[in-house]
Each structure stands twice: as C-alpha cells, then as structure tokens.
Design a protein that fits this description.
Blueprint: E1 18-20, H1 23-26, E2 50-56, H2 72-81, E3 86-88, E4 94-96, E5 99-104, E6 110-115, H3 129-140, E7 161-164, E8 167-171, H4 179-183, E9 207-213, E10 217-222, E11 236-242, H5 245-253, E12 259-261, H6 268-272, E13 279-281, E14 296-302, E15 307-312, E16 319-322, E17 329-332
Parallel strand pairs: 2-11, 2-12
Antiparallel strand pairs: 1-12, 1-13, 3-4, 5-6, 6-8, 7-8, 9-10, 10-11, 14-15, 15-16, 16-17
C-alpha cells in the first residue's frame, strides 16, 4: 500500500506538492496504488487517530458548499464531504465514483446516468435519482450557476427524466460526447440530497461535517458507513488555514500538523533535511493557457512552413503565432482583422 496517492484524504489539496510528517499516522490515509515517489513506504493501515492538515490560503469568504468552491482550501474541504459521478485515479485515468453507468445515445444528445448501488448520505438516506437531478439543477441554475455549470454546457435541464430509483436521462441541445471527461475534475457536480442545507452540509464522502470556521479551521469525522470501505482509516480530520508557506512549514516541522499542501521547490531541502520522517508526493497541479478571442482571424504566413497567425479583433490585444511544425508559440503585434 502506498502512503501517498490521488485517493488520499487531501487528494484535492495536493495541487503543488504534498509534504507529510509523522509517517505512522499518514499510513492510515493511503489506498492501493503504485508508489508515487522513491521515498514512499509500505505499512499496514491502522484505524483511529486524528490527521492534522495545514493548507495555505483561505479567508473569511471560504465556503463549504460544493456548488461554489473557489480556492484550494475550499476544494480540500469539499473533497472530504462530497463526491461526483466520475473521478481520476493516480494515472489520470477516469473511473466511476458515484456513477455505475454513463451511456450516450447514438449521437450523444442524451446521456443515461445510473448511480452506484448501496451509497448513502451521511444521514443514512439512500442516494437516489431525485438527488442527482436536484444536484444537477442546483449547479446549472441560470440565476445562480455553480462553478461546474460549464461542464454541462448545452444541457436541457428541464428535459431530465427519472427512469427508476437510481437512473436518469440527461438531454443536451447538441451532441456532447465528452460528458464523462467534463465531470472528471474537482470542478464537477457533487451529489447532495434534495433537502441540502449548506449550513449543515451532508454528502456521501469519506468524512462527515463537524465544524467549520471560514479562514481558520475545519473539522471532520469518519463516515462509518462510507461505501468505499475500509476507507477512511482516521477517525478525525482537521484542516487548518495558514497565511503563508513559512507559517505552514513551521507548523509541519514543529509537529502541529502532519501534512501540508503546495510545497514549493525552494523549501524541499528544509523538509527533507529535518529530523522528521517526511514523504514528498508529486502534485497534480496544472496551469491553463487561456485566450479570450472575440473574433478570430487566421492568416497563412508561409506555405512552406505552414505557419498561422491568430489575431484578436480588439485593438491593442496581443495575438499568438503558431507553427504547425513546432511546439513554440511566440507573440506577434496587435492587428485588426
């Protein structure tokens, strides 16, 4: 059993690197997988204890509502309480989480979604098709859309139908073949009950809500009826916010916390050179390259090289020149179409 995987308790917090101290306690949070680093260790998991995590960031506007997480600390909390239909494993491969089936019709304009059997919410209630329809509608509400609304672009929410207790059909206004991929991120539709109350959050995740102070600390307790047994192993998970990496790192080295996120390259030596036993896990973070182009112009610059110039119609905006035979992208001056 690897100590660190994408399925650890802090799977969503490990976006820039993860450092762990108190190795015996950390072993309780792993799952079967290929070791993620050369200094990973193998241990027999033991149930019990408290895991203290230290996260950078957070403020008084922090949320625990899965509809509107914004920063790393929000996503870390959401990951403890709630789950989506599809997820990614340590190899970035999709697998079903709460879904048992996602099947499109011939032209991918209608998807059939069937929920996993035997999943219950923290209050013991079965997860049903009604809950799934409610969760989707909550995200795509045009008056107050959630963070994952774009993942369901083109959905005909009013046309969703309940087939049976665990199955629904979801129509789209045009073919949408990438629905599983669109949902397989932490910006997804987290399934909540039809009577969901953000002040008393209930989900299907490995931990249950105990307390939450925005910008300071969150406390969760083990979901003894979690469908993915024998996880989780620890009885209590405490997540504490830190304003910067210095205070976060000091908390790890002094033993105040057992795990920290977003470990930068500049402090790796401090952690590995300390007297504490530390396990370093590569992060799963990535940075998007996003361009807002209101109107695009493609101009062939050279028949020999196949270069294309993409420019924006907005005066003063920078455009990008790409070459079909090279991975390089270089800026070109602003121009009008």
């Amino acid at each position: 059993m690897s100590l660190i995987t994408r399925r650890t308790v802090l799977e969503n917090a490990a976006k820039g690197g993860l450092a762990l101290g108190a190795g015996g306690l950390i072993a309780a949070c792993g799952s079967a997988s290929t070791p993620s680093s050369s200094n990973s260790a193998t241990a027999t998991p033991k149930r019990g204890g408290t895991l203290h995590g230290g996260l950078i960031g957070g403020s008084s506007s922090d949320t625990i509502d899965p509809k509107s997480p914004v920063n790393v600390t929000d996503y870390a909390r959401v990951a403890q309480l709630f789950e989506g239909l599809v997820w990614l494993n340590a190899g970035a491969q999709q697998y079903y989480r709460l879904a048992e089936e996602l099947t499109p019709n011939k032209d991918a304009t209608v998807w059939t979604i069937r929920l996993r059997q035997g999943v219950t919410f923290h209050n013991g209630k079965d997860v049903t098709a009604d809950d799934l329809i409610f969760s989707i509608n909550r995200v795509v509400d045009p008056k107050a859309p959630g963070e994952a609304a774009n993942a369901l672009h083109g959905i005909d929410a009013g046309g969703m139908k309940k087939v049976d207790k665990r199955t629904i059909t979801v129509p789209f206004t045009k073919p949408y073949s990438i629905l599983p991929q669109a949902l397989a991120t932490n910006v997804t539709v987290y399934v909540v009950p039809t009577d969901f109350d953000p002040k008393k959050p209930i989900g299907t995740g490995p931990f249950k809500y105990q307390s939450f102070t925005p910008g300071q600390q969150s406390v969760f307790v083990r979901n003894e009826n979690y469908w993915n047994q024998p996880l989780p192993y620890v009885d209590t998970l405490t997540l504490t916010n830190y304003a910067d990496q210095t205070s976060q790192l000091n908390a790890l080295l002094s033993g105040q916390v057992d795990v920290i996120n977003e470990l930068s390259q500049s402090v790796l030596g401090t952690v590995t050179g300390s007297s504490k036993k530390a396990v370093i896990s590569p992060g799963g973070g990535w940075n998007p390259f996003t361009m807002r182009v209101v109107r695009r112009c493609w101009t062939r610059r050279s028949a020999a090289t196949g270069q294309l110039a993409m420019t924006s119609s907005r005066s003063g905006r920078q455009s990008m020149t790409t070459a079909s035979r090279s991975d390089r992208m270089t800026p070109s001056g602003p121009r009008r179409c």
